Amino acid sequence: MESKIFLLCTTFLLLFCSSFPSSKGLQKQTYIVQLHPNTETAKTFTSKFDWHLSFLQEAVLGVEEEEPSSRLLYSYGFAMEGFAAQLTESEAEMLRYSPEVVAVRPDHVLQVQTTYSYKFLGLDGLGNSGVWSKSRFGQGTIVGVLDTGVWPESPSFDDTGMPSVPRKWKGICQEGENFSSSSCNRKLIGARFFIRGHRVANSPEESPNMPREYISARDSTGHGTHTASTGCGSSVSMASVLGNGAGVARGMAPGAHIAVYKVCWFNGCYSSDILAAIDVAIQDKVDVLSLSLGGFPIPLYDDTIAIGTFRAMERGISVICAAGNNGPIESSVANSAPWVSTIGAGTLDRKFPAVVRLANGKLLYGESLYPGKGLKNAEREVEVIYVTGGEKGSEFCLRGSLPRDKIQGKMVICDRGVNGRSEKGEAIKEVGGVAMILANTEINQEEDSVDVHLLPATLIGYAESVLLKAYVNATVKPKARIIFGGTVTGRSRAPEVAQFSARGPSLANPSILKPDMIAPGVNIIAAWPQNLGPTGLPYDTRRVNFTVMSGTSMSCPHVSGITALIRSTYPNWSPAAIKSALMTTADLYDRRGKAIKDGNKPAGVFAIGAGHVSPQKAINPGLVYNIQPVDYITYLCTLGFTRADILAITHKNVTCNGILRKNPGFSLNYPSISVIFKRGKTTEMTTRRVTNVGSPNSIYSVNVKAPEGVKVVVNPKRLVFNHADQTLSYRVWFVLKKRNRGKSVATFAQGQLTWVNSRNQMQRVRSPISVTLKN
Question: Which SS3 state, helix, strand or coil, does residue 528 take?
């Protein structure tokens, strides 16, 4: 009650001392108010909802308006203790003064970031000894997907052959617009939607250029349907995108159950809605949370996803997040909390060739999912034009920027950027153009994200675009045709790092190597709503059950599904153990046995983390690095986080001095190793613990590839296990060689530490190493 008196006094002073508040100060916006858990005051209320409401009632004291309860959007109790509410700036400031308030954060908006990929990952092989057989296709595991919702009628969510809903399941199938309780089944076992944060931040009027938004868990944009089916979609025969990419579509864990939480709408995904979904998902008893959304890197104590998922992790839920699509910019990786698996994107060895043949005989390689193979009208030779100059953005083919008299009947070159790739084709069609060559710019390089274009079109790389423009500029009447080649698999190097995949080191948390790993995320074919064309554009009248998308949004559910497989195989493993299995067995080499490439160079640890996910190896990792929830708190203490910061992140009110005294020289038992040499230091030491989850009597020997300029010493060099579940420790010293000492600029080096099973040389437990020299 003492804190309430304090809040009342603060309210009185602020109300009467601020006689002339600004109009900005009177505008309401959504704030997330985090409270101290388990306070004495909370016990005086009959429910947490009443306790949360009491803060609002006192913060708006003296304000003559609607009931305070109408301002309360969400009351949180599992992902975080607190609530989301509409507040003025001054009211938010009042709440910050309360001793029971940990933090008051404005609502943030985040953005959303297959017929073949399961084969590329080897999930369909090895018969009874394969991953699917061992894991029973992920049966019994529940994967919660936070995204744009779901199209429940998609064949990817058919429940034929699915087991009954797990008895532990506590969720519901929430009714809403065009979505009834019967929309769920044994595959799609639950669906909810969270719109309050989005609704108060946006006008209810819909844009005429947008498809209709369903006020329910029904997917209006396709992204959530695509990601949910990528992770756990049922088997669908004869799937294709207008004939391309034909085959059997399956998710990574086709036997797992799906629970959908719609948190993303046309204007983005609001953190208040996301936190509410995590809060409910914990209560619903999901096993895995898949979040194909994010933004730019922010500190952990301000990161709603990091805060909400900490409590999910505490309850044994594995959390998988997209790394973000802001690559190849250095330090662009998001979702970097160590209790989250952060997934970058790689390519497949499946191509959709659509070659540009110039009138002079020159061939320029491109790719497209336009169904033009064998269609003479789609492949005929026409004049090529590239419109530049002026202020309308004609080089990007913006709608309204292209003059009809120049475009009609011609093939148009469009630079990537500014507007959507498929939108450019619509802009060309509107003024009578007949085909498009989408040209990568220098920032896109050779990235090949394909689309199901509205007219004959292909995407060419940057090198080809330079040649094409040179030909057009040097030719009086340049002509070309597009030759569509259908679907080709197994002839190209893969995986490679996607150009757009976000890169480390993490700005928010540089002491942990992020991303953790990469997975297929380029040109992924998966389920699609029947209310949309394959481009997702409102004027696309074609209808399909599957379409193609690219992004770390697509790589994330691949790992979510594989996590479900491991969870089904080892139901008692912690989230950290499952992540360790995925990371320490990841591949560094492509299908040709060569180093995975990032552009024209071998991929570094800040692009691929531990490597490309390999489910066949992850199902039998040999050793795992386990982490208990309390270890993350100690880790945050070693980084110098304040007591308030740690309380905000972990909901634990701790004293770091005491924790650090009990844990001298603490190292977080992470599967990767990040070493930061601060200026003047020449030696760093870290400790790791590995648990034997393989053969009872196993011996592992260490193999080290030292980072350049660094000497690495490991003790002991052999680990002898006498029984299963035995845990042994080792130490690693990193010593700067003399030539690297005293450098004044930041320098990076990388290496790896691998434990090799002496009785099975193929079983290797590898940790990537990153070394940073700082000023």
Answer: coil
Quick one: which H or E segment has residue 282?
A: helix 271-284
Residues noted as catalytic: 147, 223, 553
Cβ burial, residue 157 (10 Å; 0-12/13-18/19+): buried
Does residue 245 contact residue 559 with C-beta atoms inside 8 Å? no
CA torsion sign for 89, 94, 95, 101 is positive
Q: Are strands 546-549 and 517-520 parallel, antiparallel or unpaired?
A: unpaired
Under 8 Å between Cβ of 157 and 184: no
Chain CA centroid to CA 467, Å: 35
Give the integer Cα–Cα distance in Å for 529 and 531.
Answer: 5
The edge-to-edge listing of strands for the beta sheet with 366-367 is 363-364, 354-358, 479-484, 382-385, 411-415, 435-439, 457-460, 366-367
Q: Would you call 3 helix, strand, or coil by DSSP?
A: helix
User: Is 7 in contact with 97 (CB distance < 8 Å)?
Assistant: yes
Q: How far apart are CA 79 and CA 77, in angstroms?
A: 6
Q: Are strands 318-322 and 350-351 parallel, antiparallel or unpaired?
A: unpaired
Which value, to the nearest 10 degrees, does the dihedral of the CA atoms of residues 584, 585, 591, 593 take? Answer: 70
Looking up tokens 């640890």 gives 605
- If DSSP codes are grouped into helix, strand and coil, which group holds residue 562? helix
Residue with tokens 């990929």: 117
Instruction: Round to whole Å and give the CA distance between 325 and 264.
Output: 17
Q: pLDDT tens digits for 285-310?
A: 999 999 999 878 889 999 999 999 99
Report the distance separating Cα 529 and Cα 154, nearest Å: 7
Name residue 549's beta-bridge partners. 524
Contacts of 392 (CB under 8 A, 6+ apart): 398, 400, 401
Beta bridge partners, 88, equal 28
pLDDT at 20 over 50: no
Amino acid at 339: W
Asked if 139 contacts 287 with a C-beta cutoff of 8 angstroms, the reply is: no
CA-closest candidate to residue 764, choices 700, 720, 718, 674: 700
| Count of residues making up the chain | 775
Query: Which candidate, 149, 275, 163, 164, places its Cα nearest to that of 212?
Result: 149
Q: Is the pLDDT of residue 393 over 70?
A: yes
Least confident of 9-13, 247-251, 332-336: 9-13
Angle between helices 629-638 and 643-650 in degrees, nearest 10: 150
Asked if 321 and 560 touch (Cβ cutoff 8 Å), the reply is no
Within a 13 Å sphere around the CA of 395, how many CA atoms are in the beta-carbon half? 12
* pTM for this prediction: 0.91
Closest CA to 458 of 449, 470, 467, 466: 449
Mapped onto helix, strand or coil, the DSSP state of residue 506 is: coil
Taken in order 559, 561, 564, 566, the sign of the CA dihedral is negative
CB 637 within 8 A of CB 664: no
Q: Amino acid identity, residue 626?
A: N
Give dist(CA 18, CA 426) in Å, integer.
54
